Amino acid sequence: MLTIVISACLVADPKSCKDYTLPVDGDMDTVQCALIAPPFLANWQENHPQWTVKRWKCQPTTMNDT
User: Would you say 40 and 22 are in contact if contact means Cβ atoms under 8 Å apart?
Assistant: First the structure.
């Protein structure tokens, strides 16, 4: 299973950043994850207007992500 890792910073304090994880269902590789990620990112950004997405990546899910 893969996870989308979002690195986001507060709009009000751009030096205050945090990583968030979004689990991705399904059996896919990182390229497929990268192709399906944009709608997940847009939805996350819409629901977290106080944060700005600075970067993101797809990576295998770890025990810390669950």
Answer: yes
Which residues does the chain have with pLDDT short of 50? none
pTM above 0.90, yes or no: no
**How far, rounded to the nearest angstrom, does the alpha carbon of residue 19 sit from its chain's CA centroid?**
8
End-to-end CA distance of the chain: 11
Token pair listed for 7: 């690195």
pLDDT digits (tens, 9 = 90+) for 3-20: 999 999 999 999 999 999
Could you tell me how many residues make up the chain? 66
SS3 content of the chain, % helix, strand, coil (to 5): 30, 40, 25
